[in-house]
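Lab notebook, design round three. We kept the backbone fixed and only want residue identities now. Task for the bench partner: fill in a sequence for the structure below.
Input structure tokens:
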């Protein structure tokens, strides 16, 4: 199946920011996380900061792939993941992702709060 979902990625210091849009299937999540791994600062601890807000969606299979990708990124020096996420998706992530990966995953609509949590985690590791 063809990958679905669009995204933009940028690295600022040791934080990889991802801006997904549209509906993601399993192949789209895998491709996006391969791109993340290819540009992440692997020689130091780094954070993944995704900004799906309410403009990106996931199929059930893509959620399972997302958990696998987070696990893989944790082996590449990613020490925390944060999602600027709408309340509609927060419950899905709390049920399907939190506790199933080895790095902390923070969910919030407040970007400043997420930036603070990322900084605390990066400074404490």
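Proposed sequence:
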């Amino acid at each position: 199946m063809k990958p679905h979902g669009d995204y933009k990625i940028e690295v600022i210091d040791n934080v990889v920011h991802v801006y997904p849009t549209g509906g993601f299937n399993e192949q789209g999540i895998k491709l996006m996380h391969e791109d993340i791994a290819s540009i992440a600062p692997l020689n130091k601890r780094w954070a993944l900061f995704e900004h799906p807000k309410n403009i990106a969606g996931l199929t059930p299979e893509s959620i399972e792939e997302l958990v696998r990708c987070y696990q893989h990124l944790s082996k590449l020096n990613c020490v925390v993941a944060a999602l600027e996420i709408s309340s509609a998706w927060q419950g899905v992530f709390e049920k399907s992702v939190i506790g199933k990966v080895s790095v902390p995953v923070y969910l919030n609509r407040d970007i400043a709060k997420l930036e603070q949590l990322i900084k605390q985690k990066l400074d404490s590791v």
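Keep this in mind before ordering anything: Residues 6-124 form a domain with the Transcription Regulator spoIIAA fold (CATH 3.30.750.24).
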